[in-house]
Design goal:
Blueprint lengths: L7 H16 L4 H8 L3 H9 L6 H11 L3 H11 L5
Helix pairs in contact: 1-5, 2-3
């Protein structure tokens, strides 16, 4: 099993987060400020250099005004049954 950070599913989730942030009209710096974290961390997350754990993912979604369930549904739809 490949590491999830390199999986197609994670890549699609990452792209979804970037789209959602852009749709919310927020910059990476604004998201970083809302999360009380360095801008570089948000950039690494969005560039696929740093993986989010489930708690970080939910917080990221909430500060950009997105429903975390939608991103999870996207991942679930991409995973093949039994894998």
């Amino acid at each position: 099993m490949e590491k999830s950070i390199y999986s197609t599913e994670y890549d699609e989730l990452r792209k979804w987060l970037v789209r959602e942030r852009n749709n919310a009209g927020l910059t990476q710096r604004e998201v970083a400020a809302l999360l009380d974290t360095p801008h570089s961390l948000v950039a690494k997350i969005e560039n696929g250099e740093r993986r989010l754990d489930v708690i970080e993912y939910c917080r990221f979604c909430y500060v950009i005004g997105s429903d975390p369930h939608k991103g999870i549904d996207l991942v679930v739809a991409l995973i093949k049954p039994g894998v």
